[in-house]
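Issue 218. Parser rejects a valid record. Input:
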Amino acid sequence: MRLFISEISDSRRALDVEPLFLQEELTPEATLIGHNLSISFYKAGDVIALSITGEAETRTLCNRCAEPIEVSFDVDEKFYVFPKSDAESVDYIYSGDTLLLDDFIHEALVMTAPSYILCDDDCKGRCPQCGVDLNTTTCQCNNDMNNKI
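Output the parser choked on:
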């Protein structure tokens, strides 16, 4: 997606984000499977303010039992983009007559994707000795960890 700098005014406008980055890894174990995002923008002087909000859904593995799950999460990230001439100590810059939005959208998704996900708050995980899923089976290992669960 792109915005033409000349079309950005001091009035806030919003656009729906087209499906981007689907089936891409957001984290080492999380794959983006969908999103419903919008991006609002306006110009304050030469600075462009971007706000990316909405919901996204990822397919990942539970951090305790490693079973596959799908998780929805909220996206709410803001960016301030400065003209290249002001670029000494800022993170985001623009130059030319267009602003490409894909990198901002990708960063918003990565920054808001949950990093620790459980299939259930009471997930018991896996036995560290035999690897059995302790949510569905009680293993026969002589393991202090299993006796505490």
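Fixed in the parser; the record now loads. Residues 102-112 form the longest helix (11 residues).
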